[in-house]
Amino acid sequence: MPKKWARMFPGQAEHVAEARRFVAALLEGEDSALVEDAVLVVSELATNAVQHTRSGWCRGWFLVVIGFTDDLLRIQVTDQGGDEEPMVRGVKTAVDEGGRGLLLVDACAKDWGVKDRAGGARCIWVDLARVSG
Length: 133
Known about the structure:
Layout (H helix, E strand, L loop, with lengths): L2 E8 L3 H13 L5 H21 L8 E8 L3 E8 L21 H8 L2 E6 L5 E8 L4
Helix pairs in contact: 1-2, 2-3
């Protein structure tokens, strides 16, 4: 039976670090590579939510859901939606400061995707493989 934990965060940049700590605490005792990947994924998705969606507006929020099965960790970050569809973008130069978030997520993920939610919200889900002991 899958296990799930969820927490809603205010849509402000300083709460991205809180989301990272939330995930790291839930994954205590898991393989260190999985923890690092999960924290990176949440950091990128939460940052995108705050910077590129209505979640970053006044009274905005984003929701982090972590689900465990025997072989997968599913991370879901739901934001309040925006005008642009989330997609992996190419980085033009090595010194570009942005544009790598979903590229990094894609590199870590076994699979990932986007689901539209009611009211214009959007959920980005990411599956990470759990290492068998």
